[in-house]
Fold this protein.
Amino acid sequence: MSEPKSDALVFFGATGDLAYKKIFPALQAMVKRGTLNVPVIGVAKANWNLDQLKARARDSLEKHGGGADPQAFGKLAALLSYVDGDYADAATFRQLRQLLGSAQRPAHYLAIPPVLFGSVVQQLEKAECTASGTRVVIEKPFGRDLESARNLNKILLGAFDEDHIFRIDHYLGKRPVHNMTFFRFTNTLLEPCWNRHYVDSVQITMAEDFGIQGRGAFYDQTGTVRDVVQNHLFQVLANLTMEPPVRTDSESVRDEKVKVLRAIPEIKAADLVRGQFRGYLEEQGVAAGSTVETFVALRLAIDNWRWQGVPFFIRAGKSLPVTCTEVIAYLLRPPLLFGSSQPHRDYLRLRISPTNDAAIGVNVMDEAETGVGQAAELLALRTPGLNERDAYERVLTDAMMGDRTLFAREDYVEEAWRIVDPVLKAGTPAYPYAPGTWGPKEAEAVGPPEGWHNPLVAKEASR
C-alpha cells in the first residue's frame, strides 16, 4: 500500500552549512523533477528574514547546485517561508505551527547538531506539530554510542511511530551504493560464487586525501569510527552481504540488513587499529592532547551460513594519498595446473567514488606463453547521466513519499552500535601517521596476510 505524500517540508538548520552545500541544491532538483510542490519552511536562529534566506538559497545554488535555474528557483522561492527563532524557545514552535496552517502530514527534517535532536522533537510535540501522519527526518550521527542511541530512540518513539521516523544516511542515496543489491541479485554471473565457498576475503576502503577542513570542533567529538564506519561503511557492508529479501518492500529489505549486523560479533581491541594524522592537534577546535582517530583499520567476521570464515577488512581515513571509496573481494585461488607458479587471485572490484566502476580481475596467458600467466582486469565504467539524482535529492524525496527502504530502522542502529561500542570504550592508542600516506604501519596487523589493496586513482579524478 502506497504511503501518502508529505504536504509540507520543515527543515531545521536552514542557514547552516549542510543546507548551503546540499539541501538547497536538492530542493531545486526536486522542484525541477516535479517531486516538490508543497510549502517549505526553514527554521534557524540567525536574525535573518525571508529575503535573506532566499538570497542564501540562490548563492548556495550558484556555488554548489550548478546555478539557480530561473524557472525552478522561482518556484522554490515561492514555496519558501522562514521562522527565525531559538530551538529552546516555545514561541519558535508556535510560530511554526501557525505557518503550517492546514498541513496534516508535514515532514520535519532536522539538519542540526545531534545534541539538539531530542529537545527539538520534544518542542515539536508540545506545539502539536507531531500529529498522526507527521514524519521526522534525522541526520547522522544517531547517538554516539549504544546507550545514547537508545535514549534518543525513546524520545523519538514518544512522539512518532517507528514508521514515521526516517534516520538519514545520505550514503545510501548514492546511486552506486543503492545499485549494489540490484547488481548482486540480477546477475547470475556473480551470485553463485558470492559466498564462503568462493570468496577468500573482502576489503572496503574509504580514503580521503584531505583533512578535517575546519571542522575540528565536530570531528574531535566524533572520530572516524562514528563519522563513517558505524554508519556509511556498515551500510555498504550490509548491501554487499545481505540475503535476497522475500519481497522488495522497505521492511523486507531492512529485515535482511539487520540480520547481517546481528551475525557480526563485537569488534575486539586486537582487531582494530586507530591512527591520527600529524598536524591534527594543531587544527582549530581540536582539544590539546586529543586521541580522537582520523584513521581506522579493522577486521570483522559475519557469522552466518553464507559468510562464516570469510574475513572482512574495513579501512577509512583522512589525509590519505587519494580520495576513493572502493570494495574489492578476492576469490579463492584455483589449483596449480600450468607451470609451478601460483596464479593471481581473481577478484571483483566495485568503485563507489570518484568514478563508478565494476571490474573483474582474471588470469590470462603471458606474452611469452611460458605458462606463468599474467593478471588482467575486465573493466566496466559507468558515466553518470545528466539527469541523475543526487544522494540528498533521493533520500529527501523518498522520505516525503514515505519510502523507508534507504533509512535505518531502530534495531539496525542499535545493532551497529553494539558492534563498535566495546572497542570505542577500550581506549586503544591512536598511532601517528604522515599526511599523504596509507595510515600508521600498525594497520598492517589487522589487514589481510597479503597486505591491504590501495586504490589507484588519478589525482585530478579524486577531487
